[in-house]
Amino acid sequence: MKRLLLLIALLASLQCRAQSQLVNQQEDSLVNLVAWFCKGDSMRYAVESVSYKVDGKDTTVQSHVEEDILLTVLDSTSKGYRIELTSMPRKATLGDSKGFLKGGDAHEWFATLFHPAKVIFTTSDVGEVQNIENWREIRDDFHKKMKPLLDSIYANTPGMQDIVPRKNLESLLLLTTSTEENIRKGLKVLSLLFDMHGRQYKLGNTPIDGLNGYNSKGSLTAGYGAYEKEDGWDDDIRLFSTIQTVLTLEDLKPLVGATVGMLTKEDIGQEVEKALHENMKENLTVTDESEFYYFFNGWPCSMTQSRIAGYPGYQKVKATNATWTYRAWKASAQEPEDSRQSL
């Protein structure tokens, strides 16, 4: 349990992303990821997320979620776009809440709980997400779902109250959904599809160093080419990145302490810190990889993102993929409507 608490706290605290800056290069050496959408455009995606842990020779799937996402452009102006995201769940397999602290994954449980059926958001003229119009509705819906889940967890998990007092967990969950900014951070699919928009990327391979102030290194490769020749164009965009971050015991202490301190009783927090010193003999490594394809007009095509975090003998893995299944573009100079499968 100590190792699980430690890794949950780490993964909840660490936000490690490839932040590519605008670069001063000749225009023909840049890849510009810009949205060229039209009112009435729509895209449908099949989204699959899986999370599992590897403990020695044992591999345990902790969650497996599949859904369809429909994006529809409600309005298009010179200042940007207004888009509706509709989620249609197909499959959700989660760890048993009765084993919440033993084999369950708190992060996955609550990420799935925070899963609005509809999101209305706005972007800039280049596709950067700016506002979540219905964030209050999303917040209120989350709060309604939160109570019965917590009732089940605390009723079926002996000793849960002694480790993580319910009022502490409720307060943290309420805090994470208290503002529009926090709501936006929690919308992982939205981040997957649009986080890279509105930037220029140097053509070819660019080293990435020093992410978040930790010992990190990696690279971002930008270029042109279709994900699949029969469904794309030569001026479609590709972005690939790999980032490896190594965290020492000194790096981990404030990350774990901040999260565990908010959730647990004081003596439990001290126990976790002690366990950290006793069990973390190796540096912890976090590897983030992404493989993003976009159509020539900025619509996401196929998006794959994964994270492996752990140390020898114990790892936590999470991977998400979103691939288009239907597209209808109202004013495209190229193919206006297409489907990869029957609807």
Strand content: 35-45%
Q: What class would the helix/strand composition place it in? A: alpha+beta
The arrangement of helices and strands along the chain is HEEEEHEEHHHHHEEEEHHEEEE
Gyration radius, in Å: 21 Å
Instruction: Give the N-terminus to C-terminus distance in angstroms.
Output: 44 Å
Q: How would you sum up the major sheet?
A: 12 strands, antiparallel
Q: Could you list the spans in which at least 5 consecutive residues all have pLDDT below 50?
A: 1-26, 96-104
Tally of helical segments? 9
Give the overall form. Answer: globular
Number of strands: 14
Overview of this structure, please?
The chain is α+β, with helices and mostly antiparallel strands and 343 residues long. 29% of the residues lie in helices and 40% in strands. The protein is built from nine helices and 14 strands. Strands 2, 3, 4, 5, 6, 8, 9, 10, 11, 12, 13 and 14 form a twelve-stranded antiparallel β-sheet that branches. Strands 1-7 form a two-stranded antiparallel ribbon. Helix 1 crosses helix 8 (249-263) and helix 8 (249-263) packs antiparallel against helix 9 (266-279). It starts with a helix and ends with a strand. Residues 1-26 and 96-104 have low confidence and may be disordered.
